[in-house]
Amino acid sequence: MAGNATDTEYSRFVDTIQLLSYWLQYPAFTVNLILIFLSFHYVKPCLARTFVLHISIPSFFCSSYRILRYIFREQITNLYDNLTVHLLDYLAHTMALFPAITLYEIQATLIVLLTYFCYSHPLKYRKIFSPRKIFATFLIGDFFALLAAINVFFERTYLHFNYNTVILKAQIIVRLTVTYGLLILMFVFYFKVN
User: Fold this and answer.
1) Which residues form the domain of 105?
2) pTM score of the predicted model
3) Do residues 26 and 93 make contact, with C-beta atoms less than 8 angstroms apart?
4) Helices (H) and strands (E) in the chain, counts
């Protein structure tokens, strides 16, 4: 009897957390939508605008996904018997959430480095980094975040694909190489500038 009571309390607690998470997505959705609108209509192209857009657009899609996922949770759960639906849902979950989280790490480090470089060596910064190159740099960060998300999807679903652990280890090595390679590249860039 005591086990059933704790299970019921736990399920109510989980439901409350899911509902709270759902309602907290609306402010994030609204703020990101406002940031995107203001960035396009009122802010001239600059480093801060590029950073804000590259963070707020994935965050906007992440909020939208979480809202829609909560609204349609029962329909999706009913279809979970089908492995393809389960994998597609997990792929959507990974692609919506993981890049937004990784972008905070990659783009925030990039903006700190570019801002530091801009203030410590303004003439060299102006010569090396045109607005087009800065945009391309942020797109490369987006690409690496997407690549990391794809690797995470395959790492977490490898049991469904029935391939051996050698491929899984190779994927983990690729993801770690991309993540730590970006970090090392940023440190090398930082120390080379000084």
Assistant:
1) 2-193
2) 0.68
3) no
4) 8, 0
